[in-house]
Amino acid sequence: MSFCSFFGGEVFQNHFEPGVYVCAKCGYELFSSRSKYAHSSPWPAFTETIHADSVAKRPEHNQPEALKVSCGRCGNGLGHEFRNDGPKKGQSRFIFSSSLKFIPKDKETSASQKK
Fold it and tell me: Which of 62, 97, 68, 96 is nearest to 83 (CA)?
């Protein structure tokens, strides 16, 4: 089942350095690299958000197992959450496109001080 078109060039699919993934539009913290896992889709996959309000979710039209996900701060469209499709039973899988920016662990402190 395909929700998004893939045109190649996804830079975070096989990226597993320690750090934080933030919204590319506003810089709000979304996911820790600790919640990222290898997945067969061409997009990066995560199991949980950093903050309870990191993302906002709404039902995907005619797809009960999927939710559209946007940044909890600015509303920027991020991707989808697929319920009960994570690496462990009962976990969801979040997948995202180029709406993410990565901040390496050694740069996290300076980035959060700019907020």
Answer: 68
